[in-house]
């Protein structure tokens, strides 16, 4: 701490108290403490709606070096409840920066703490699991620790938390391919149900020629049906999938209608539940951009961006009939190479697939961007009356850039996030 | 895909001698490769001419060929060993070039040897600049605009198109040799001219300037299943314009947003796939324009590199090891991550600390050299440091350099305008200029404009200044002040300077306040998974991660950054010690900060601490080991001068020192006491004295007579050592010696002219002596032993002399009180054996002696340090470690059938230019300047000598013309060898006086004019040299005009890469070698075969090889 810094506290549910310095806004932040291991992408992380009611602990030691810009946010605001870093940058250094992270946190009222041994916090969360926590600064930090701890413990658990409604878009809106360097007629129309969707997700679809109607989380099947979509997408989002009964029954209606379906993260958990599998909470979750995932169909490894605390409970390595047997056979298409957690589902008899990780990246590697191409293919086939299924969503065999034009086309906009201003 | 079943034997090519740009990192990667191949049950054949490496230890391969790395020689090895495959990607550019040559000559096809880990097409796509540009384009990325030229005319044409400044890069050279920045046509002529020479394809690339852009590097791995991962991103503190090997570098990248980073990642993945690196690693360098983010791909290396060694140490992801597994068929997901054990290698390491690497330079060895940093690498070593933030890591790295004023200081008031002007030119001082300028109130943005160093880094330096100020100005050195200073990497010593306190007092206060570092773990995953590998670094943070250990530990202090005079040889001894001690059941702890080395591989010792080797940092490691299970003691004699100079202070702090005691170490360094040892043993040293002033020195020199050898005490590598011929010379030396004081006296020795120097490495346990080997220098005394070539066993010394040497060694070892290794230098003049100096520690020659005689001296020394006796180490003693030494006899009495090993030094003169662009003088002297060494080994001296010259990249000609020009005192000695050359059919070219002498002796020669007497080059030897009509040069130095003539000739030879010999004795040996290489076809033999022969001849007992 420098002499001008003021005291702040991070208090975990188990009673551990970490002293640091106030950062961002002063006050109290309550949430579930989770750690993120990404070395880049803090702005995307903070604005990822899936971090709602979570206090994000960054393992990367320097945060804020490149400041904040107006191109990288993944949604309209910072959703993380609180922020824990070791060394906060004093100065933003990047040609796109329009301000410092410190100012941005303050402006958005995010209570953060710096000068924390985030590795020590991470080791604790790893060993004991994600837990309730609070960040206290300003006057709040002066209160007795016992009071603060009681406040930490009194907050609701992430299990059973129903949060999509909080983060979803209030109004429906449309993302047009033409806005994202797509030339020519749209290839199809998609309804994306926003359960906390990241900004980049519809962009990735629009870049590939899909017109995307983004609808709020509580959208009914009939509203969707009126738009006559060629495909439906369920996004990532915060909370416990066990609480998403509404979306689960919505998805069943979609699947029953034969409309091609793609889901990411929360969307994957909802597909899992719609198919009749259970979901469960992981000890400390997967949050980072270096997560290796095995694609079981090709034996290839994808380095993925992940942010999930819940996972689908399905057997890895076998094809089985979905517990909801009308959806036919299903496979765990992807699993984590670190801990074998289910990272993707593929329906072999219907046009539905989903992944637990984030192919839209932002932040993160672009290894899995091909999944959006597969979704386009399902949609195109569906439009032409051909019947493709989740089985047709495999990774390309030749991943060289020159081998497939589509890959090249992918990687160029992907590299710049699809923003014309930044291309 | 599992391991391939069709690979039964693999040939690995090493990187040869340590040179600038290709150093110990390839011993580290090569050793890993050998270990993996052996573990996989594959027969391993190695060729590497560098004896000072761990990889050439006979136990790491089934057949270890210490032979020259040339296509011809490797072809013989292939013919003999018939390997299934060749793995060329772990031996740097040398190995890759050798593989390309073996492919081109058809050897690989002829013997059906498959190249693994790389393919020729990929190597060429990656390394051929024009082809690589195409790759970059196909990957949707940009290269700097550039043109390839093959002649100076083309170069001038290209300049019109690209404009100045322009980067000049020769193709297929390593470490950026011959590269430079041309600001005008004169520069272009100079740099491109030399570059056309250095490039094996006579090809030079000229490129638009991206000077001042941000520079990044990504380390990549790809497996046969096309899985690609980024192991590490590295950001250069110094912007484009300084070779990455000479830059301060930081991992991970600090100033990229995710979008920018992913763009570099996408391009890198596309490139590795497009180039077609089938399996293994590569690195790709980028420049990013700071104001627009425009990305330019600079280059790629389709192999394991210096950066990959750094990336391995920085992340814990063992690139070379994994590259080798990939080469034999595994895929990344099949290889477990050693550190977490349960997660696979198919992931991207994430760091929760900051790594800073700082280069170490040797400009002090080349006073004439221009210290400007350019795209030609000039550093000779590096230190790496880890911290929980940049400031901590940077300050730890700077103090790891162990150079005077390598730590930031806060009390200077340099002139701001001067600083701003100086920092416009990148030099080793730039970071200090920047720091002082910021302290003096310079505007950060102005410094950014001048230097191109990213404002984020500048702000961090500003932060260090602020903390320095706060520390100085605080009313009291209380816990908050100390904690903040420590958090930003300040040493007790820096704090002491700021507070005008003794560092020991600072330490006392700090300990009293309980402010101690914690030790964190490098785990590849930012603590997401539990780490099982105890690879630690210190930080002033909250939580300590050192777990308790079962047995008290033996701590080995390493040798820090490589430098001239203290290189990989010392790492070798440290590694051997840890291996022997672990075998003996000890828990070993390595402390070191050199990322290039085997010693800092995380599984070499029981625990690794990546730390500066200062008293403060070492004491904290010892304290951590003490509190978690106890410490047996510390070895300080193995890592060279770096740990040795800590011996006394450690002992004073109550740390048990293993092996030779600090008192004995001091005794050997202390003139008066050491003279008593000699007197007691009836030995003599050259007349000498110790001076603390010029008056002292003059009085001594007047008494003992000129020439005298002067040097500071406590040095390694002859740092500051000079032969002084007269009083003005002595006065000049004392004036320039930076520090002469009672604590740092100057030693003045009578210089023995025309003496034979003899080097000895021996073991002593208090009772018995085991003499490892006696080396006879080929050059006369006066040339530093590290630069001199030498031969073992001695070729001109009789058994009576050897017996005297052994006896003298025993007396000195006993007199000093050695428990372990001692190195003694003798000089034999007029049949009197003089003792030049004795060092009670591992020496530079320990690995050479161990390899030449098949006895592992450093391992034996480590065990002696723990109390095992030489008698117990001998075969048949019944002790657990028996067999480390032969049953009887030692290296002083090698049998007649013993192979002859020649050690030759490799010198870096071609790297250095004077400020006006000329090469520095290549004359050898008492100050060491070689960066590395090779060994030539054969049944006979002459062929061993010839092999050593080829291995040192200095092949001797078998025919052609020899230019001879020697000083007056040498004229007598050259008649016979020159006549022999003439008889062999060589043409002789000479100048004035030398030519007269030769003619009078019936040797006809072509006479050329002296350069000093000739206005233009015409009619001088320079003209002949440039025309390619001279194949070998003998030029011995003398004063006056001939000396400057000599400089011109040697400089031209260095530029042209011609072999130049500067001593008569060296010439004599060369003549023998030339005759041998004309007469005999070389055979190749592995160390294992040599050891078997030695065994048959009676020296080596079972188990000693």
UniProtKB/TrEMBL annotation, chain A:
This is Carbamoyl phosphate synthase small chain. L-glutamine binds at residues 50, 237, 239, 266, 269, 307, 309-310. Residues 389-423 are annotated as: Disordered. Keywords: Amino-acid biosynthesis, Arginine biosynthesis, ATP-binding, Glutamine amidotransferase, Ligase, Nucleotide-binding, Pyrimidine biosynthesis. The active site is at 265 (nucleophile), 358, 360. SUPFAM superfamilies: Carbamoyl phosphate synthetase, small subunit N-terminal domain (SSF52021), Class I glutamine amidotransferase-like (SSF52317). CDD domains: GATase1_CPSase. One of its GO terms (biological process) is glutamine metabolic process. Residues 1-190 are annotated as: CPSase. Its EC number is 6.3.5.5. It comes from the Bacteria. Pathway: Pyrimidine metabolism; UMP biosynthesis via de novo pathway; (S)-dihydroorotate from bicarbonate: step 1/3; Amino-acid biosynthesis; L-arginine biosynthesis; carbamoyl phosphate from bicarbonate: step 1/1. Belongs to the CarA family. GO terms for molecular function: ATP binding; carbamoyl-phosphate synthase (glutamine-hydrolyzing) activity. Composed of two chains; the small (or glutamine) chain promotes the hydrolysis of glutamine to ammonia, which is used by the large (or ammonia) chain to synthesize carbamoyl phosphate. Tetramer of heterodimers (alpha,beta)4. Small subunit of the glutamine-dependent carbamoyl phosphate synthetase (CPSase). CPSase catalyzes the formation of carbamoyl phosphate from the ammonia moiety of glutamine, carbonate, and phosphate donated by ATP, constituting the first step of 2 biosynthetic pathways, one leading to arginine and/or urea and the other to pyrimidine nucleotides. The small subunit (glutamine amidotransferase) binds and cleaves glutamine to supply the large subunit with the substrate ammonia. The keyword Transmembrane helix does not apply. Residues 6-136 form the Carbamoyl-phosphate synthase small subunit N-terminal domain.
Automatic annotation (TrEMBL), chain B:
ATP 2 binds at residues 711, 750, 752, 757, 782-785, 825, 837. Mg(2+) 4 binds at residues 837, 839. The keyword Transit peptide does not apply. Gene3D superfamilies: 3.40.50.20, ATP-grasp fold, A domain, ATP-grasp fold, B domain, Carbamoyl-phosphate synthetase, large subunit oligomerisation domain, Methylglyoxal synthase-like domain. Residues 954-1105 are annotated as: Allosteric domain. The keyword Nucleotide-binding applies. Mn(2+) 3 binds at residues 825, 837. Residues 133-328, 675-866 form the ATP-grasp domain. Mg(2+) 2 binds at residues 299, 301. It comes from the Bacteria. Coiled coil: none annotated. ATP 1 binds at residues 129, 169, 175-176, 208, 210, 215, 241-243, 285, 299. Mn(2+) 4 binds at residues 837, 839. Mn(2+) 2 binds at residues 299, 301. GO terms for cellular component: cytoplasm. Pathway: Pyrimidine metabolism; UMP biosynthesis via de novo pathway; (S)-dihydroorotate from bicarbonate: step 1/3; Amino-acid biosynthesis; L-arginine biosynthesis; carbamoyl phosphate from bicarbonate: step 1/1. Mg(2+) 1 binds at residues 285, 299. GO terms for molecular function: ATP binding; carbamoyl-phosphate synthase (ammonia) activity; carbamoyl-phosphate synthase (glutamine-hydrolyzing) activity; metal ion binding. It holds the Pfam family CPSase_L_D1. Its EC number is 6.3.4.16, 6.3.5.5. Its cofactor is Mg(2+); Mn(2+). Belongs to the CarB family. Large subunit of the glutamine-dependent carbamoyl phosphate synthetase (CPSase). CPSase catalyzes the formation of carbamoyl phosphate from the ammonia moiety of glutamine, carbonate, and phosphate donated by ATP, constituting the first step of 2 biosynthetic pathways, one leading to arginine and/or urea and the other to pyrimidine nucleotides. The large subunit is composed of 2 ATP-grasp domains that are involved in binding the 2 ATP molecules needed for carbamoyl phosphate synthesis. The N-terminal ATP-grasp domain (referred to as the carboxyphosphate synthetic component) catalyzes the ATP-dependent phosphorylation of hydrogencarbonate to carboxyphosphate and the subsequent nucleophilic attack by ammonia to form a carbamate intermediate. Composed of two chains; the small (or glutamine) chain promotes the hydrolysis of glutamine to ammonia, which is used by the large (or ammonia) chain to synthesize carbamoyl phosphate. Tetramer of heterodimers (alpha,beta)4. This is Carbamoyl phosphate synthase large chain. It comes from Garicola koreensis.
């Amino acid at each position: 701490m420098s002499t001008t810094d003021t005291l702040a506290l991070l208090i975990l549910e188990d009673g551990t108290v970490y002293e640091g310095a106030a950062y961002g806004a002063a006050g109290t932040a309550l949430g579930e403490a989770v750690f993120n291991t990404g070395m880049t992408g803090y702005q995307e992380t903070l604005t990822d709606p899936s971090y709602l009611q979570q206090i994000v602990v960054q393992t990367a030691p320097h945060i804020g070096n490149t400041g904040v810009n107006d191109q990288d946010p993944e949604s309209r605001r910072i959703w993380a409840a609180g922020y824990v870093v070791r060394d906060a940058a004093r100065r933003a250094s990047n040609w796109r920066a329009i301000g410092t992270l410190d100012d941005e946190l303050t402006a958005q009222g995010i209570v953060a703490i710096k000068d924390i041994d985030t590795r020590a916090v991470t080791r604790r969360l790893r060993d004991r699991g994600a837990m309730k926590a609070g960040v206290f600064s300003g006057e709040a930090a002066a209160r007795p620790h016992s009071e603060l701890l009681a406040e930490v413990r009194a907050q609701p658990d992430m299990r059973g938390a129903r949060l999509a409604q909080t983060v979803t878009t209030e109004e429906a809106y449309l993302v047009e391919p033409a806005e994202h360097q797509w030339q020519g007629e749209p290839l199809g129309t998609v309804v994306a149900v926003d359960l906390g969707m990241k900004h980049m997700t519809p962009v990735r679809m629009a870049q590939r020629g899909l017109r995307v109607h983004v609808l709020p989380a509580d959208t009914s099947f009939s509203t969707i049906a009126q738009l006559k979509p060629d495909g439906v997408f369920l996004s990532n989002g915060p909370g416990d999938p066990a609480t998403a009964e509404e979306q689960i029954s919505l998805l069943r209606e979609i699947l029953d209608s034969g409309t091609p379906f793609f889901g990411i993260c929360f969307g994957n958990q909802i597909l899992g539940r719609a198919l009749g599998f259970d979901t469960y909470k992981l000890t400390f979750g997967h949050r980072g951009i270096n997560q290796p995932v095995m694609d079981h169909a090709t034996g290839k490894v994808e380095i993925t961006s992940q942010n999930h605390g819940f996972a689908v409970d399905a057997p890895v390595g076998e094809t089985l009939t979905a517990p909801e047997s009308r959806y036919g056979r299903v496979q765990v298409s992807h699993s984590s190479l670190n801990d074998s957690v289910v990272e993707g589902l593929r329906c072999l008899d219907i046009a539905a697939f989903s992944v637990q990780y984030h192919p839209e990246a932002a932040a993160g590697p672009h290894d899995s961007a091909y999944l959006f191409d597969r979704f386009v293919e399902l949609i195109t086939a569906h439009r032409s009356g051909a019947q493709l299924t989740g089985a047709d969503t495999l990774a390309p065999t030749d991943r060289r850039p020159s081998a497939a034009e589509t890959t090249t086309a992918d990687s160029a906009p992907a590299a710049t996030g699809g923003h014309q201003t930044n291309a | 895909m599992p391991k391939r079943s069709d690979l039964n034997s693999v040939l690995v090519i090493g990187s040869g001698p340590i040179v600038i740009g290709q150093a110990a990192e390839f011993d580290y990667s090569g050793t890993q490769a050998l270990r993996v191949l052996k573990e996989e049950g594959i027969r391993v054949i190695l060729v590497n001419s560098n004896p000072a490496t761990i990889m050439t230890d006979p136990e790491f391969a089934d057949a270890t060929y210490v032979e020259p790395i040339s296509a011809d020689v490797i072809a013989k090895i292939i013919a003999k060993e018939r390997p299934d495959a060749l793995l060329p990607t772990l031996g740097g550019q040398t190995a890759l070039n050798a593989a390309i040559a073996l492919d081109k000559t058809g050897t690989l096809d002829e013997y059906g040897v498959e190249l693994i880990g790389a393919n020729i097409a990929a190597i060429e796509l990656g390394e051929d600049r024009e082809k690589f540009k195409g790759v970059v384009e196909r990957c949707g990325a940009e290269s700097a605009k550039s043109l390839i030229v093959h002649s100076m005319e083309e170069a001038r044409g290209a300049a019109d198109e690209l404009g100045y400044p322009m980067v000049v890069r020769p193709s297929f050279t390593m470490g950026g040799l011959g590269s430079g920045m041309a600001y005008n046509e004169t520069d272009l002529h100079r740099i491109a001219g030399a570059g056309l020479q250095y490039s094996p394809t006579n090809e030079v690339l000229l490129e638009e300037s991206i000077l001042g852009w941000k520079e990044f590097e990504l380390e990549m791995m790809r497996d046969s299943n096309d899985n690609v991962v980024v192991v590490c991103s590295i950001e250069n503190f110094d912007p484009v314009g300084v070779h990455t090997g000479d830059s301060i570098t930081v991992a991970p990248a600090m100033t990229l947003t995710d979008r920018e980073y992913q763009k570099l990642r996408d391009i890198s993945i596309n490139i590795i796939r497009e180039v077609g690196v089938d399996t293994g690693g590569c690195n790709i360098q980028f420049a990013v324009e700071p104001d627009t983010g425009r990305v330019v791909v600079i280059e790629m290396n389709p192999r394991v590199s210096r950066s990959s060694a750094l990336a391995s140490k920085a992340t814990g992801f063992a690139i070379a090891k994994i590259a080798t597994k990939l080469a034999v068929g595994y895929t990344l997901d099949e290889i477990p991550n050693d550190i977490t054990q349960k997660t696979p290698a198919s992931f991207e390491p994430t760091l929760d600390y900051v790594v800073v690497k700082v280069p170490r330079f040797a400009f002090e060895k080349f006073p004439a050299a221009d210290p400007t940093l350019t795209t030609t690498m000039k550093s000779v070593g590096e230190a790496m440091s880890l911290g929980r933030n940049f400031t901590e890591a940077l300050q730890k790295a700077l103090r790891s350099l162990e150079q005077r004023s390598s730590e930031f200081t806060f009390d200077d008031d340099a002139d701001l305008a001067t600083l701003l002007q100086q920092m416009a030119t990148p030099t080793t001082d730039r970071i200090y200029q920047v720091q002082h300028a910021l302290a003096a109130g310079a505007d950060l943005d102005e410094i950014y404009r001048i230097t191109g160093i990213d404002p984020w880094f500048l702000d961090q330096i500003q932060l260090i200044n602020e903390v320095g100020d706060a520390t100085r100005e605080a009313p009291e050195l209380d816990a908050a002040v100390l904690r903040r200073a420590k958090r930003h990497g300040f040493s007790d010593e820096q704090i002491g300077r700021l507070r005008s306190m003794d560092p020991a007092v600072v330490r006392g206060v700090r300990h009293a306040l309980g402010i101690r570092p914690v030790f964190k773990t490098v785990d590849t995953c930012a603590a997401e998974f539990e780490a099982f590998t105890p690879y630690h670094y210190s930080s002033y943070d909250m939580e300590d991660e050192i777990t308790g250990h079962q047995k008290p530990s033996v701590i080995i202090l390493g040798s820090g950054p490589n430098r001239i005079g203290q290189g990989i040889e010392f790492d070798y001894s440290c590694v051997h010690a840890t291996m022997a001690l672990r075998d003996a059941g000890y828990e070993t702890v390595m402390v070191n900060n050199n990322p290039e080395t085997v010693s800092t591989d995380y599984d070499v010792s029981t625990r690794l601490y990546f730390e500066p080797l200062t008293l403060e940092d070492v004491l904290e490691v010892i304290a951590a080991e003490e509190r978690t299970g106890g410490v047996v003691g510390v070895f300080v004699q193995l890592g060279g001068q770096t740990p040795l100079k800590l011996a006394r202070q450690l002992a004073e702090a109550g740390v048990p020192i293993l092996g030779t005691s600090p008192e004995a170490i001091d005794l050997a360094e202390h003139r008066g006491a050491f003279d008593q040892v000699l007197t007691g043993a009836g030995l003599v040293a050259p007349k000498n004295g110790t001076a603390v002033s010029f008056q002292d020195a003059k009085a001594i020199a007047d008494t003992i007579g000129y020439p005298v050898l002067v040097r500071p005490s406590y040095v390694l590598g002859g740092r500051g050592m000079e032969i002084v011929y007269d009083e003005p010379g002595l006065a000049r030396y004392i004036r320039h010696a930076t520090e002469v004081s009672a604590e740092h006296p100057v030693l003045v020795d009578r210089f023995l002219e025309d003496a034979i120097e003899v080097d000895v490495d021996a073991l002593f346990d208090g009772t018995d002596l085991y003499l490892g080997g006696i080396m006879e220098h080929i050059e006369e005394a006066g040339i530093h032993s590290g630069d001199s070539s030498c031969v073992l066993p001695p070729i001109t010394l009789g058994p009576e002399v050897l017996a005297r040497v052994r006896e003298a060694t025993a007396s000195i070892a006993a007199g000093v009180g050695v428990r372990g290794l001692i190195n003694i230098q003798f000089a034999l003049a007029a049949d009197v054996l003089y003792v030049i100096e004795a060092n009670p520690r591992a020496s530079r020659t320990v690995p050479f002696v161990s390899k030449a005689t098949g006895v592992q001296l450093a391992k034996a020394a480590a065990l002696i340090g723990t109390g095992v006796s030489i008698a117990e180490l001998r075969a048949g003693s019944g002790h657990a470690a028996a067999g480390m030494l032969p049953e009887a006899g030692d290296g002083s009495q090698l049998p007649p059938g013993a192979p002859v090993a020649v050690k030759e030094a490799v010198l870096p003169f071609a790297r250095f230019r004077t400020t006006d662009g000329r090469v520095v003088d290549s004359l050898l002297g008492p100050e060491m300047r070689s960066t590395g060494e090779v060994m030539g080994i054969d049944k006979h001296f002459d062929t061993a000598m010839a092999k050593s010259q080829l291995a040192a990249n200095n092949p001797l000609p078998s025919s052609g013309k020899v230019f001879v020009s020697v000083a007056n005192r040498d004229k007598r000695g050259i008649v016979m060898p020159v006549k022999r050359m003439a008889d062999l059919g060589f043409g002789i070219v000479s100048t004035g006086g030398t030519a007269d002498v030769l003619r009078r002796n019936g040797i006809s020669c072509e006479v050329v004019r002296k350069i000093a007497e000739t206005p233009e080059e015409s009619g001088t030897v320079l003209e002949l040299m440039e025309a390619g009509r001279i194949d070998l040069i003998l030029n011995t130095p003398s004063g006056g005009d001939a000396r400057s003539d000599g400089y011109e000739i040697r400089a031209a030879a260095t530029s042209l890469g011609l072999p130049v010999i500067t001593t008569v004795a060296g010439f004599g040996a060369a003549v023998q070698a030339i005759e041998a290489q004309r007469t005999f076809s070389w055979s190749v033999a592995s160390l294992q075969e040599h050891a078997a022969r030695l065994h048959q001849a009676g020296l080596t007992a079972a188990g000693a090889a």
